[in-house]
Specification:
alpha+beta; single chain; 60s Ribosomal Protein L30, Chain: A
Amino acid sequence: MTSFKELLEGSVAAHGHLCPGQVVGVRMAILGLRLLGYNAPPTLPQLKRLIVFVEMDRCTGDAVAHVTNVKLGRRSLKFMDYGIMAATFVDLAASRAFRIISTEESRELALLYAPPGLSKREAQLQAYRVMPDSVMFRVQEVQVDLSEFDLPGPTRRKVTCGKCGQVVRDQREVVQEGRILCRPCALGAYFSAPRDIAWPEMNWSPCLPEGDMGDRDKPKWQAAAGER
C-alpha cells in the first residue's frame, strides 16, 4: 500500500496544484478501494476488475482517477456529468459497488479539525487530512448494471449514422423512426455549424523528418519506390 502522503503528492503532481479537492479526491479513492478490499493504488489484477464512475469535472475527479489508475481509454473510468462530488467504485468480478459522496458538513466542520487562525482554504487543506471518513463522506452500497458494451476490451459493435455517415461504437447510437443515428444528429450536440476544412501542411506526420515536403503525402515505402 502506498501512503496517503505519497498518493497525494503524486496526484498533485499529475493535476498541477494542491487544493482541498485534491485531498478529498485522494481520501475518496482510498476509501472506495478499501471498501472493495483493493490496494491503493490497485494491483494489476485488481485494476482489471475495477470500474469507477466519477460524477464531477473538478479537481476531486482527477485525484480519484490518479489513485485508482482508471482511464477513459481503458474504459475503466466513466464520467457522469452530475455536478455532484461523488464517485462509485465497482468490482466487476464480485458484482459489488460503493458510491461515496463528499458531505457539505465536512466543509462546515473544517475549522474544528484545523489549527486556529487559518483561512478557509488552508483550514480545509489541513482538516481533510485528519477528518474521519464518517464525517467527510456518505457511503452507499449500490447496484450498477453494465452491459457488454460498457466493459473494457475491443469494440463490440459498430453502426453507421444514417444522416452524417459517422461510425458509432458500442451501442451509443439512437434509433428514431427505424433510422440509426449518432447522438449529435439525433439529440443535438455541444457544437454547432460544423464544416470540413483543409489547412496548410495538413499532410504532416510526426514520423516524417522535418522539412520532408515532396513526399509528405506518401507512405515512406512509396516515396522510396518512386526514387528507384
